[in-house]
Design a protein that fits this description.
This protein has twelve helices and twelve strands. The chain is an alpha/beta fold. The strands form two sheets. Strands 2-1-3-4-5-11 form a six-stranded parallel beta sheet, sandwiched between helices. The chain has a six-stranded mixed beta sheet with strand order 7-6-8-9-10-12, sandwiched between helices. The longest helix is centred in the first third of the chain and has 16 residues, at 72-87. It is elongated, with a radius of gyration of 23 Å. The relative contact order is 0.13.
């Protein structure tokens, strides 16, 4: 049976482009649309009957798209979403966008096999989400703000979180503070960094580029960025990691350098993942409501499906959790 992938190959375009073209999306040029339609005609392509049927009835399924299914942050988020879907008789499918336009994430949204989606994956294109979201399939985004009739946005107060982390260190007497952040493309990372810099400016502390590195939100990234940071002859007295996973990698690099936390370096993270309380020393961090974000995302989809009015933007509060990894200088 001919698939959308065959049509895309014949037309010389991406699968997502072929899907847009066949659905009449205005994002696709007339020339490309005609090329795809001609390829579909030559191959006698028919849209998936099951997918067409789901346009008319509920699949009772919510799709959760995550960049990484294994990270400790995501487990709490998934648990929150699952608590709502199960109690309301919905199935939950969690997947990543690995494979691009051929991935399960793109396939389920393109073929309309789900009643809604929750997205925490910057690899899913914003234009694709705008074209896919519709009545009967609302989308909740957790990693960016998208203005669209059928897209809702949830975030923690990342600017305030970044500010509180820096301010906590400053109030402990630290003025030489390093920053290890996530990917520069991460919307949440950008906001945390903005809050961090706002605090430095407010307290008249100089921003030092040599102490601001990227750790990509992973333990390995945090480890390597910290090793690089500690190569400076003049090192900071405290480091703010834009998530707890990078801080865990930083712990290893700091100890390999023969330094002690917090005697030589104070460390603060962001997220308050489960292990943060149990490592030694217990990690000072910014707690964001991971479980609550998941439950809210699922509830918003169910409310939208029932025809209720749903506000498009939601921002949840955060909290500073002071533990043993920070000390007065």
């Amino acid at each position: 049976m001919t698939t959308i992938k065959d049509v895309a190959l014949r037309a010389g375009v991406a699968v997502s482009t072929a899907s847009y073209a066949l659905s009449g999306s205005s994002k696709i040029s007339r020339t490309t649309r005609e090329k795809v339609q001609q390829a579909a005609k030559e191959l006698n392509y028919q849209k998936n009957g099951f997918a067409m049927d789901l346009k008319r009835r509920s699949s009772k399924t919510i799709l959760l798209i995550l960049k990484d299914l294994s990270g400790p942050y995501y487990s709490e988020l998934i648990r929150g979403v699952q608590a709502v879907t199960i109690s309301n008789g919905f199935d939950l499918i969690a997947c990543s966008s690995v494979g691009g336009s051929d991935s399960t994430a793109y396939k389920f949204l393109t073929e309309r096999r789900v009643d809604g989606a929750i997205v925490l994956d910057k690899n899913i294109e914003t234009d694709f989400l705008r074209d896919t979201a519709r009545e009967g399939c609302p989308i909740v985004c957790l990693d960016r703000i998208i203005d669209s009739d059928f897209i809702m946005n949830i975030s923690a107060d990342n600017i305030q979180g970044g500010f509180l982390a820096a301010e906590h260190l400053i109030q402990l007497g630290h003025r030489d503070i390093g920053w290890i952040g996530g990917p520069v493309t991460s919307f949440n990372n950008q906001l945390r960094k903005q809050g961090f810099l706002n605090a430095l400016k407010l307290y008249d502390i100089q921003e030092r580029q040599k102490w601001m590195l990227v750790g990509n939100f992973t333990q390995e990234g945090g480890y390597h960025a910290t090793k690089l940071l500690l190569m400076n002859e003049h090192r900071p007295t405290a480091i703010f990691y834009a998530n707890d996973e990078m801080a865990l990698g930083g712990y290893k690099a700091i100890r390999e350098k023969g330094l002690s936390i917090p005697a030589d370096l104070s460390v603060i993270g962001f997220d308050d993942i489960h292990v943060a309380e149990y490592i030694h020393p217990a990690l000072t961090t910014i707690r964001q409501p991971k479980f609550e974000i998941g439950t809210m995302a699922a509830h918003l989809i169910l409310q939208a499906l029932s025809g209720e009015y749903v506000k498009r933007k939601h921002e949840l509060s955060i909290e500073l959790i002071a533990r043993d990894s920070t000390i007065r200088r």
